[in-house]
């Protein structure tokens, strides 16, 4: 398998974490978002939206959209599972992931922030305020959900990492870039500390990517 990825992209990062947790062999093909490579004809052949990541299977099938890729990986290699056993627990984990994937990340995406800068004359402070507002809204909810989840364990849901952790860790990484104060979120920071200890999360980290600078 080949993953088209950009080192600092949160959606690439969450997908790399899932690949690493599952122990799947994959190659990285870097897509330089800063140089606009995602909008070039070669990459658009793989991903009609011009967004990273894309997973390309050995038979050439392109899978776009990180939620679809991660669900594909879960079906392709069910063990270790990134979902709990009970359907209602699975729904909780998917809901936590969706808070980030559906309600938060899209508002802080490169093209959205560029639009704010170019069309609404926002400086970096304005952009940080915009992105930070939606990240804080997500973390406020997730902090309460992690605390109220009735389970033992140091991850978002239970004693092993789930899809929710795959989504949370990149969002925390992104928060640091936008100067979001994480001190009101001790439960999330505890999850972060637990994930950081795992080799899978370390290998997937932006700093450990071939295109990191
Ligand atoms: N919902 C998509 C979003 C993908 C996405 O927005 N990727 C970002 C990087 S994190 C991107 O390619 N941005 C390029 C741009 O905004 O121009 C997914 O989860 O795969």
TrEMBL record:
Isomerase is among the record's keywords: yes
Residue ranges occupied by any GST N-terminal domain in the UniProt entry: 1-81
Pfam family, one: GST_C_2
One MF annotation (Gene Ontology) recorded for this entry: maleylacetoacetate isomerase activity
Any GO CC annotation of this UniProt entry: cytoplasm
GO BP annotations listed: glutathione metabolic process; L-phenylalanine catabolic process
Protein name, UniProt field: Maleylacetoacetate isomerase
Cross-referenced InterPro entries: Glutathione-S-Trfase_C-like, Glutathione-S-Trfase_C_sf, Glutathione_S-Trfase, Glutathione_S-Trfase_N, GST_Zeta, GST_Zeta_C, GST_Zeta_N, Thioredoxin-like_sf
Occurrences of domain GST C-terminal (ranges): 86-213
Keywords linked to the UniProt accession: Isomerase
Family per record: Belongs to the GST superfamily. Zeta family.
